Automatic annotation (TrEMBL):
Organism lineage string: Bacteria, Pseudomonadati, Pseudomonadota, Gammaproteobacteria, Lysobacterales
Protein name, UniProt field: P-II family nitrogen regulator
PANTHER family named in the record: NITROGEN REGULATORY PROTEIN GLNK, NITROGEN REGULATORY PROTEIN P-II
Gene3D superfamilies linked to this entry: 3.30.70.120
Keywords: Nucleotide-binding, Phosphoprotein
Amino acid sequence: MKMISAIIKPFKLDDVRDALEAVGVRGITVTEVKGFGRQKGHTELYRGAEYVVDFLPKLKLEIAAPSDQVETIVETLVETASNNKVGDGKIFIYDLEQVIRIRTGETDQDAL
């Protein structure tokens, strides 16, 4: 099992969610986050004063998936979250040692 964590632009969420559902993803967790990378923020004008926005709003998606689905999920994320511009986001994949469904006590694949 793997945990896939993806940082995407907020306006891409609906497209990504629909595409993930189409490839069989049954659940995702979405968190509003802020950060910067190569994009390094930007300046804005507010009430006549210019200020720097260092941390840009993003969404963090977390998907627990069987190892055999990871490649399909990653391809789907890359296709639907991309604008081919700086700041499109990143995908992180790491091992998931154990999953337990609280309600039933099911573990691992059964809990997904």
